[in-house]
Design a protein that fits this description.
Blueprint: H1 9-12, H2 18-36, H3 43-61, E1 66-68, E2 73-75, H4 77-93, H5 109-126, H6 131-150, H7 155-186, H8 191-201, H9 205-225, H10 234-241, H11 244-250, H12 253-271, H13 275-297, H14 302-323, H15 326-349, H16 374-377, H17 379-392, H18 399-413, H19 417-443, H20 459-492
Antiparallel strand pairs: 1-2
Length: about 500
């Protein structure tokens, strides 16, 4: 007779689930309110979303790192930092729905409910080392995000959502196959057990091939999610079809979550000395950052340029993950903690002039000509956008410079001098296309009579952009505090 397993409530450690449950309950609450009383002012849903996100943030801050829920949940330093980044970026994005010129999707309560479900999916994704629960988190967040893109209600938005869905389905297939190989070779889907099994049995030739094969399949899946070469081609079209702020959000939050999971998975192979996996990651990183920079040089649309820029930054950070050092792993989160404010601010600034019909180009919404002479039309807007561009280019003392410098120093400390040189050269190439926009804003003449163009300078947009700008400019004063906190959390997590 089989003895039943006795599990107490204390052993389940249910408080670890509270942050995700807050986001899910918030989304369900918004749907219920809309069912009971429709046609309410949509600012109510913005406020409810902000309250839910703030409560979520407090719940994450109050968590003690631990395991729970039948050991499926793993809340450690990586999880806590990732959740902080996801929630803070979400709190910067949601208030944009209050701006005077709203996007179509902000008129639907379902938008805010789906947004909170997406946040919960990302939180589940980074708070476990179980391959199945990671998959559930990925798909929960992705399915909500596909719908959010399509809700922009333009033909290219539907196209973007369909492309993203297709690439996401392909990535899910590779992830499932990679997980199956990992399970077949180790007998487990728990990453800590996978590491133990591989450390014992990875010495034989056939096992090395199987282990590497599983790692490659998983790497392909995350290359889709992180838009790494050659699986990056969907990103510019999807960013172009999404609203400008949502495109900025997509360039940060899904990648933070994907990097957190990639760190958990591929750190196993790197720690065990599977050099083939490290080499593949480094090659992908170098090709991605270089090719994306080359493509960004020839773009005629600022949003597509920023899309390729985001791909290049992802390649830059992927190289840090391949180093296999605590400093390199910490650099992943330090970089995105600084990058998220600058990049979201830059994408949001594309919204300073929004038109339902194409005015400046027969093809693009945000060609460089749209920003020509902006210093004469909106001096403060031109200065703010220029500061964002200088930061993305890695010009000191702005925020992204410190992230780039830290990762390059991590590469040098790990003995990858050539990699650090390649990173530096790519930063120099990127400076050209960032400064190209600055030239248009400060040295070109306006294309149209500015009296006929409405500019979006509402208070919510100014507040969000202002917060992003303050962090971008003053990062030198708090970088050491941020570095100390993230480094301690990553070290405590065993990375």
């Amino acid at each position: 007779m089989v003895t039943p397993i006795q599990v107490t409530v204390q052993e389940l450690n249910l408080p670890l689930l509270v942050p995700m449950l807050i986001a899910i309950a918030g989304g369900l609450g918004i749907l219920v309110i809309d069912l009971l009383k429709s046609n309410l002012d949509k600012s109510l849903y913005v406020m409810l979303s902000m309250i839910v996100l703030f409560a979520d943030l407090l719940a994450v801050a109050g968590i003690t790192p631990n395991r729970g829920f039948f050991d499926l949940m793993l809340v450690d330093g990586v999880s806590i930092i990732s959740q902080f980044l996801v929630i803070v970026t979400s709190m910067l994005f949601i208030p944009l729905a209050l701006t005077s010129k709203r996007f179509h999707e902000f008129s639907y309560p379902e938008f805010f409910a789906l947004f909170l479900f997406m946040v919960a999916g990302f939180q589940f994704m980074v708070s476990t080392d179980n391959l199945i629960l990671i998959f559930v988190g990925i798909e929960t967040a992705s399915l909500a995000l596909y719908t959010l893109i399509a809700m922009h209600n333009r033909s290219n938005s539907f196209e973007a959502a369909l492309k993203y869905f297709t690439m996401g389905a392909l990535a899910a297939g590779f992830y499932a196959m990679g997980s199956a190989v990992v399970y077949a070779t180790t007998g487990s889907i728990e990453l800590w057990q996978v590491k133990e099994a591989l450390s014992i049995s990875s010495s034989t030739g056939s096992m090395v091939i199987a282990v590497t094969g599983g790692a490659v399949l998983l790497l392909v899946a995350f290359a889709f999610k992180l838009s790494l070469f050659p699986f990056h081609t969907w990103a510019p079209d999807v960013y172009e079809g999404a609203s400008a702020p949502l495109a900025g959000y997509m360039s940060i939050v899904p990648k933070v979550a994907a990097f957190a999971v990639a760190l958990r998975i591929f750190d196993i192979y790197i720690d065990l000395g599977v050099e083939s996996v490290r080499t593949i990651i480094l090659i992908l990183a170098v090709i991605t950052m270089t090719l994306a920079n080359m493509m960004a040089l020839v773009q005629e649309d600022v949003k597509r340029m920023l899309a390729y820029s985001s791909i290049s930054h992802a390649g830059f950070v992927m190289a840090a993950l391949a180093l296999g050092t605590t400093k390199g792993n910490a650099g992943v989160f330090i970089y995105y903690a600084l990058f998220m404010f600058t990049n979201l601010g830059a994408f949001t600034m594309l919204w300073i002039s929004r038109h339902k019909k194409l005015m400046y180009s027969d093809r693009y919404d945000h060609p460089y000509e749209k920003f020509a002479g902006l210093i004469k039309i909106m001096p403060m807007g031109a200065v703010v956008m220029a500061l964002f561009m200088l930061s993305l280019a890695g010009v000191p003392p702005f925020s992204v410079f410190w992230g780039k410098l830290f990762i390059m120093s991590a590469a040098v400390d790990a003995g990858y001098i050539k990699l650090a040189i390649i990173m530096g050269l790519n930063s120099a190439i990127a400076a050209y296309y960032y400064l190209k926009l600055v030239v248009y804003m400060f040295l070109k003449e306006p294309v149209f009579n500015t009296d006929t163009i409405y500019y979006n300078i509402s208070k919510p947009l100014m507040v969000i952009v202002g917060i992003a700008l303050v962090v971008t400019v003053t990062s030198v004063f708090f970088f050491d505090i941020l570095l100390t906190y993230i480094y301690a959390m990553i070290s405590a997590s065993g990375f």
